[in-house]
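Help wanted!
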Amino acid sequence: MKHKSFSEGIYLKTTTNIPHWLTKQASLHPNKVAIELVDGTCITFLQLKQKSEHFAKQLANLHIEKETRVAILSSNHIDMIIAIHALSYLEAMVVLLNTRLTTRELTYQLTQSNAALLLTTKSLQQEKKLAFSNQITFFRVKSMCIKDVSLANDINLDAPFTMMYTSGTTGAPKGVVHTYGNHWWSAVGSVLNLGLHADDKWLLTLPLFHVGGLSILIRSVMYGMTVFFIEEYSITAVKHALFERKVTIASLVTLMLQQLLDKNDENLLPGHVRCILLGGGSVPEPLLRKVEAYHVPLFQSYGMTETSSQIVTLSETYAREKLGSSGKPLLPANIKIHQADHNGVGEIIVKGPMVFHGYDQLPEENERAFSDGWFHTGDLGYIDDDGFLYVVDRRTDLIISGGENIYPSEIEQVLLDYPHVKDVAVVGQGDSKWGAIPVAFVVTEKEANEADLLEFARQHLASYKVPRRIVFTETLPRNAANKVMRHRLAEELNNNKNNT
Amino acid sequence: MKHKSFSEGIYLKTTTNIPHWLTKQASLHPNKVAIELVDGTCITFLQLKQKSEHFAKQLANLHIEKETRVAILSSNHIDMIIAIHALSYLEAMVVLLNTRLTTRELTYQLTQSNAALLLTTKSLQQEKKLAFSNQITFFRVKSMCIKDVSLANDINLDAPFTMMYTSGTTGAPKGVVHTYGNHWWSAVGSVLNLGLHADDKWLLTLPLFHVGGLSILIRSVMYGMTVFFIEEYSITAVKHALFERKVTIASLVTLMLQQLLDKNDENLLPGHVRCILLGGGSVPEPLLRKVEAYHVPLFQSYGMTETSSQIVTLSETYAREKLGSSGKPLLPANIKIHQADHNGVGEIIVKGPMVFHGYDQLPEENERAFSDGWFHTGDLGYIDDDGFLYVVDRRTDLIISGGENIYPSEIEQVLLDYPHVKDVAVVGQGDSKWGAIPVAFVVTEKEANEADLLEFARQHLASYKVPRRIVFTETLPRNAANKVMRHRLAEELNNNKNNT
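Answered by r_m:
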């Protein structure tokens, strides 16, 4: 029997549009608090919309149009939130820059991204002294007249919204483009996992220039949910948020959780805290034991910039039974182990509508990174019989230190530029405070001085990337393909540490 | 400055795929109850997946392939749920038939839909005596061997999933095709409005062949949420579900809510009931007063088959302040009033990813129904200054009786076939039990007998569509364009009723 096709006479859509999320929340919940600050300031969804629209119309003086790329260099601040929403009203693309980067690193990203404008603060302007010509402070924009332009009513989920840089095994930072749809699906995956309560209030203290922070902001305007916004991180502020300000969900990195439990010897977390979402690096066992003792509702997760934040999450239910696992992929996501060895360990590959569509202007890199819609993370892991993911090694050599990603190759490139340095390998050494710290193994032609070499690194690298220590050595261990076996060095380092 | 386009070297997706939702829930929550029955039977997500896969492999014997159209004629029954999921594993399209329709009506829909197979029950087979050749009972299928076919791992959100018929102003039923994406977005819109709690349990007692019932089933597999499934509606069963079985959300029609509150003079609803979602027709004022007195957490809503259930919902917060309003459009949706008159009243048009893409094989009808992505509902309404929708008139002449839609023109066509009937107009008369009941105004050439005419109607129409009363009249009121002014007749009817 022949069946009529679905497309016969059916109105076919090409893209998916939804009403602008902030406009929508301002309509649905005008008086609900969108952003609550430590000092007690509360900004409702209606106010946030009005401020963002106003700022958009001020920005419009600067020739920002649809798909214009605008870089933001700012630490967490309410102005930054308003700017992000404002740029979405202009349908511009937001390039988020990490404030901890050096002038050299920032210049590279500004140039690579083709940013037409840099929005920043006075203090960062003075600190970074960027040669970039078209830069302006939030303060200056706010003093401008408004220009009467029409703002976006809708969001096209296929349109690009944000870009942030991530380094890779090759060392050169790559721009990860997130569409509105990537963010949307990430937030939907999260709500189907964690649920949504009318009184939910999500703690935002991770940097907005990382996807972990930005994704909280976007969930807020999608869910109509209050964000408790700590502009300047301190453990005191986090405790205040959890204990006094009725925060129900908090996204933390391991370092923060450690600090929280260190200073929390007497009080259990209050009952209204229903989820501590943990990203960024593995959790040391002593910390997990504390989590258990204090009944912390911990949700470990696995994700990266390319997956628009968490893509695999371990729910509280399985926290003990599946210790060390990152959990199962969120509803819209799929994971597989690629080319598993006899132990089942292989590369983790991921698929789903929250996975980004490619690095900016790097067609060859994208060709390598995707196959049949699956993104190759470069991380190693295995999936147990019950379907739980265990990450064995992050991106082969990735070092996660205090929530920041450090790519060894990027540091190696810098050190190789130093006179008489012949060979370099950077590896992570386990650290009870930071999770891991970078250590450099260096082979030189002539004797070299550790302090000079570190000083040189400091000039070219963000401080968290500067090796804590240089180990001078005769040769580096290499495999048959002449590739440095960083894991061999890491083992050596971590064994020595344990022995001393 | 020229900006590089986003698409340069970016991996472009064409469709959005997600893992099959039931397979996913069976992985995430294998032992969580998916379906709970009145008799205490509980079916977990893992069991539901296994049963559905098994049934799919039995159905595979019947040459069901991707996009094969399979009709289901069944009252609410667990077999029907399994069949719907099974057909999605085969990527077939499910045509849902209303059990209350006559043999003639069902035959029309079976033919129109190009169904390759009819799945039904023994009792409905005996009752309807359909001439359709390729029909089989659930029971027969369950006795078959399984065929080893590969089942769908993914769901393509752009693929058609279900079809159900709705009548229109022209009288001929039209097949409303829902893609997986339509259902998905409808469920996302709902979760962002109502939230999601770990202990949520949704009462399903509306027929699965209507979108109001079907959408609950789909939310269940998307949210990983338990459905309390009443196969045979009774107010006793509903009370039992709400009071004894910890149901937290219930979708009801006005008639059911009325019955619930009638028999509920002593007990308030228990605290775990956090939402009564009400669709289908306006709520009489005395009922609203009871809702207030009993503190019922009522969410009134507006929606239709074409919008995959609710698209506008009034939250509890505004229930009193905005009495009579249907609320505001859900997050992914937009509404507008088309060609408003001086009072702001015009046709309600809607847009959003939960809105269907067209009627099956009716290109001209679709041409009329859509403009620039907006679907013209045919309903009249206005939006107040705060953005709340008030529905003034459902599809000009639609009569909603006990949750069923009745289209006057469909009844009129039937009555005009009776000898000596010259002219007919059917209108709704307000009814305290059913909301509204159909009444026919008939002009005949010769004197006719009411009983004979009603008997004729009963032979051709589902019983709920049969007029409760015939009013013989000399002429029908017509406007300048010679269109019957049904509203004039309705006014007459409802005034007379109030006067007597």
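OP: Thanks! One thing I noticed: Residues 1-6 of chain B have pLDDT under 50 and may be disordered.
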